Amino acid sequence: MRDAGKLSHEAGLKNVLVSNGTASLSVLREISPYIDAMNIDLKCFDRDVYKKVLGGDLDMTMAFIEEASKTSRFMYRDFIPAFT
């Protein structure tokens, strides 16, 4: 993503990241300069559901959203109450 994002920026294109927020903050920091907008899905606020049903990590997702919100490129998708 980093390499493709850099090349597309050099060509004058824009990049949108659509994510579930399950990535390390170091990855976000590395790709952030090449991302023009972000769409991060937050499925619920229940840690057990995130782990057992979604196979994810709520704390990691929340940290990803918090870090992403510090950039001017952040675009947050509405909370999806599918598992509440």
**What's the arrangement of strands in the largest beta sheet?**
1-2-3
Q: What is the average per-residue confidence, as pLDDT, rounded to a whole number?
A: 86
Instruction: Give the number of DSSP strands.
Output: 3
Task: Work out the helix count.
Answer: 4
- The residue ranges in which pLDDT falls below 50 over 5 or more consecutive positions are none
User: Whole-number radius of gyration?
Assistant: 14 Å
- 3D shape: elongated
Tally of separate domains: 1
State the share of residues found in helices, binned by percent: 25-40%
Beta-strand percent range:
5-15%
Largest sheet: 3 strands, parallel
List its salient traits.
39% helix, 84 residues, alpha/beta, 4 helices, single chain
Report on this structure:
The protein is an alpha/beta fold and 84 residues long. The chain has one domain (2-78). The chain contains four helices and three strands. The chain has helices at residues 2-10, 25-31, 47-52, 58-68; strands at 16-19, 37-40, 74-76. The chain has a three-stranded parallel β-sheet with strand order 1-2-3, with no helix packed on it. Helix 2 (25-31) links the parallel strand 1 and strand 2 (37-40). The longest helix is centred in the C-terminal third of the chain and has 11 residues, at 58-68. The chain is elongated and about 45 Å long. The N and C termini lie far apart (32 Å). The model has no long low-confidence stretch (mean pLDDT 86).
Summarize this, please?
The chain is α/β, with parallel strands linked by helices and 84 residues long. The protein has helices at 2-10, 25-31, 47-52, 58-68; strands at residues 16-19, 37-40, 74-76.
